[in-house]
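Dear U.,

Please find below the material for section 3 of the report. The protein was modelled together with zinc ion; I have listed the sequence and SMILES used, followed by the predicted complex structure.
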Amino acid sequence: MLLTALGTAAGIGRGVATTSFLVDETTLIDCGSGVGSLPVEQLEKIERVLLTHSHLDHCGFIPFLADCHAYRDGPGITVYSQPETLAALRAHLFSGVLWPDYTRLPDPAKPWVRLEEITVGETVQLENGTATALPAAHSVPGIGWLITGPKNAFAFTGDTGPCPAFWNAVSRVATLSDVVSEISYRNKDSANAERFGHLSAEKLAPLLDGLPDGMRLWISHLEPGRETEMMAEIRATLPSRLKVDAILSGQEIVL
Ligand SMILES: [Zn+2]
Ligand SMILES: [Zn+2]
């Protein structure tokens, strides 16, 4: 199983894009602007989106991905997320105003975009593994994802503030090899991190006791243009027993 980072940043700019990870060829975790880097042939192979939450930097490219599947013979795409997140997609993204309502087109019984409810602890079957929804604590309802492959497992926090339940859950996964955690704010902005349901390095550090020595901890959702400055502070703040690095577009992880 191969996980490829397509977009990992909190915003846009040359060389950076918002959150989207490709799992093998058929599954996306989130559908931010990073997905736009895939060639059309690969976009057409995507069958499902595992969505963390309703913010545009994570779901904003779902309508364009749906366009790649409209008027084709295939089954379209299925978006998995919590009921609150799917309700937000229905009310705002597929309201028929911002974009055609692909959740009811071409036929409400067989639409190009299907919305499937999932709650924390539930699992989606993938071709070569599983995806399980993990708890998160964001400013809107959110989840993380645990992707379990034949050899290793990968966990992604999604957007979140401090969420001990996420870290307790991943520390129990024996095959866990890689964790991607968001850090959106510098330590001096920890009050804003808390206000908007995000993390700074000093807010994340106390949550990592359950991770074994040498675990790879990737950092995502950095502020475009501030990556170097933020990573210097993050490395100085997080435990040195972990392998801490920024995850950038193009990074591959074998599971
Ligand atoms: Zn968010
Ligand atoms: Zn975000």
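For the text of the report, you could mention the following: The first helix runs from residue 40 to 43.

Regards,
Y.
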